[in-house]
Write a structure and sequence with these properties.
With about 120 residues, the protein is of the alpha+beta class. The protein has one domain: Sufe protein. Chain: A. Helices cover about 45% and strands about 20% of the residues. It has five helices and three strands. It has a three-stranded antiparallel beta sheet with strand order 1-2-3, with helices on one face.
């Protein structure tokens, strides 16, 4: 069902955890399958210097979360806001059609964390 890259990011996820003094935090969920994704970002000079996630869910949700964190770490907020779920899917080498919503959660989570940061730092 899952390709090798998805399984690698599921079994060895990157950037797992929590940032105690995070500048932006977001939690998103998918009613389709009950997955919950929480993202923490640390921002310096408009750049995502650190990012962590905690995801309760399936292999696709965890792999999508992990891949998203790698794709936006070190990017400017504007660059991170441009990340699409399609880019996450492509970076993972594909997801089963029924699991594409997991990549959408990853896109939604980073955008919501950035929005939280922006609202706190107007």
């Amino acid at each position: 069902m899952y390709n090798e890259k998805v399984m690698e990011y599921f079994t060895n996820p990157r950037n797992v955890g929590e940032i105690e003094d995070a500048d932006g935090i977001a939690e998103v969920g998918s009613p389709q399958c009950g997955d919950i994704m929480k993202v923490y970002i640390k921002v310096e000079d408009n750049i995502i210097k650190d990012i962590k996630f905690q995801t309760f869910g399936c292999a696709s949700a965890i792999a999508s979360s992990s891949m998203m964190t790698e794709m936006v770490k070190g990017k400017t907020l504007d660059e991170a806001l441009k990340l699409t779920n399609r880019e996450v899917v492509d970076a993972l080498g594909g997801l089963p059609p029924a699991k594409i919503h997991c990549s959408v959660m990853a896109e939604d989570a980073i955008r919501a964390a950035i929005k939280d940061y922006m609202e706190k730092n107007k």
